[in-house]
Amino acid sequence: LVESFGIRADHEGVSATSPRPTQPRSTTVRAALLLTAAGIALAGCGRATQPVANQGPTATATAPVPDAGTSAEAAIPRGDNPPAPTGASQEPAATSAHGAEASPGVAPAAAPLAARPPLVAPVVVVPEDLAGIDQSLADFDIQLTNAGHDAATPEGDLG
Amino acid sequence: MTTLRTRLAAAALGAGLVLAAPATARAAPRRPVKDRADTTATTTGLVTTTPSAPAGRDLESLRSRCVAAIDARLPALSAAKAALASTRHVTDDHRAALTALIDDITTGLQTRRGEIAADTEVGSLREHCRTIFGNSRVFALVLPRTRLVVASDVSGAIADKLDEVAGKLNAAIAEASGRDVTQAKTDLEAMRAKIASSRTSAASVPRALLGLTPADWNANHNVLLSVRQSLQSARSDLGAARRLAGKIRDELKPKPQA
User: Fold this and answer.
1) Are residues A79 and B253, on separate chains, in Cβ contact within 8 Å?
2) What ipTM is given for this predicted complex?
3) Which tens digits make up the pLDDT trace of A53-84?
4) How close B14 gets to chain A, by Cα (Å)?
5) What is the pLDDT of residues B109-123, one digit of tens each?
6) Left (φ > 0), alpha (ψ -120 to 50) or beta: where does A48 sit?
7) Which residue of chain A is at minimal alpha-carbon distance from B76?
8) Could you read off the pLDDT of B139-156 as tens digits, one per residue?
9) Whole-angstrom Cα distance, residue A107 to residue A71?
10) Could you say which of A134, A147, A155 has the minimum Cβ distance to residue B133?
11) What pLDDT shows up at residue A116?
12) Rounded distance, CA B59 to CA B72, Å?
């Protein structure tokens, strides 16, 4: 539930950044109702096996970001389900912060996660860690290359 | 008949002499002049003037070249300052120091532009123009220095992140009971060694760069060379550490069951 919820929330979050002509208030109410229904279903059945459908755009504000890279969440192998890259905004520290803020929302899904079979070797390095390093290495290369270009510019010549 | 032929030959010779004399006189100034008074103009790249050239034309030509040189540098400095303000991973101290250096050079060039516009003599104009280069060194020093200090700070941030990843990998190795993690442990040690080496290479870069002046570059045009080599070494170590992180991560992945 957590993974599907988070991914869906990401999709909605992307689309929610552009102006939408639809009625946001009704969508918010719909999302809240759906979240409430999902919570009741979880409480009643004790387990959740189906993803929440039709999350509204307001779910983005409270949705947990998958692959937080910290605490017990990081021990879950996410290699089969990496999050979409976010380009320059893919700051590893920011990702961890999102994960920390989203921790209350993760709580209801603790039961199904604990029910999984134990991992032989937990992979704690999430894709964001290495992707963030790769981006910083690219920044480094750009600075070094441009420094060489600047230094190669003729300095003391008017002719 | 012989007398007539002699007279015609003499007349032709006389006419030839008359025509040749002025042409020789005009060609004389075009010979190479050995004793040029302005020898410094060659070393600075400034326009060389001959004593016979009109002073007004030289003044305006030189002025336009000097103004163009300033106008090529001011936008570059402005762009560097803007990029510096938005660059991640730069420490506050380095950002402030680099910004102050850029502002200082920018102010100097703006002042020089006004002086050059007001110059009425070639001598003073030439002196002002020389300071555009000798007192600023925008392309040779100011801009590369900014980028190299930024690169140094970026390398530190990468090392921090790699240390964090190494900690996670170490925890994963510790929790991987029942599996052979010998290779992963060896790779993790190598990764940490590479991180430490990168820090050592890049540590002295900002201090070495921020104190440089245009006079330092004038005295030694390779003053940035050792710094660039240090950063290239740091980059090599960081890349190796990054590759080792991926390798260890792959080694720790659960193997698919047959």
Assistant:
1) yes
2) 0.75
3) 333 333 333 333 333 333 333 333 333 333 33
4) 48
5) 999 999 999 999 999
6) beta
7) A150
8) 999 999 999 999 999 999
9) 13
10) A155
11) 52
12) 20
Neighbour-count burial of A13, counting CB atoms closer than 10 A to its CB (0-12 exposed, 13-18 middle, 19+ buried)? middle
Minimal Cα distance from B84: which residue of A?
A143
Query: What 8-state DSSP symbol labels residue B180?
Result: -
For B144, the closest of A132, A133, A147 (CB atoms) is A147
Two tokens, residue B169:
């990998």
Cα angle vertex A92, ends A60, A122, to 5°?
Answer: 95
Kindly report the nearest CA distance between residue B201 and chain A, in angstroms. Answer: 14
The token pair at A36 is 């409430």
Of B129, B162, B242, the CB nearest to A158: B129
Residue with tokens 């801009």: B143
Give me the amino acid identity at A45.
Answer: C
Q: What backbone torsions phi and psi does residue B29 show, to the nearest 5 degrees?
A: -65, -15
Amino acid at B82: A
From CA A60, how far away is CA A12, in angstroms rounded?
Answer: 7
